[in-house]
Design brief:
Elements lengths: L7 E7 L2 E8 L4 E7 L5 H18 L5
Antiparallel strand pairs: 1-2, 2-3
Length: about 60
């Protein structure tokens, strides 16, 4: 759906870190961040979504 603002989030525990991937299903652009589990799931998700928005804006697209 064009302009659906849907973002897919994937969270993986890797040792003492957490990898969070944010994917725009319309463009198939994916970004990931690695952070501390102590940061909290919501904070890590927000950081990944902010990074995705930055990358999309840089490529001339938006969320």
């Amino acid at each position: 759906m064009p302009g659906s603002n849907e973002i897919l989030i994937e969270i993986q525990q890797i040792g003492n870190a957490v990898k969070v991937a944010a994917i725009d299903p319309e463009t198939l652009i994916e970004v990931s961040i690695v952070g501390s589990p102590n940061a909290g799931e919501e904070a890590l998700k927000r950081a990944a979504v902010r990074k995705l928005a930055f990358v999309l804006k840089k490529s001339g697209r938006s969320l």
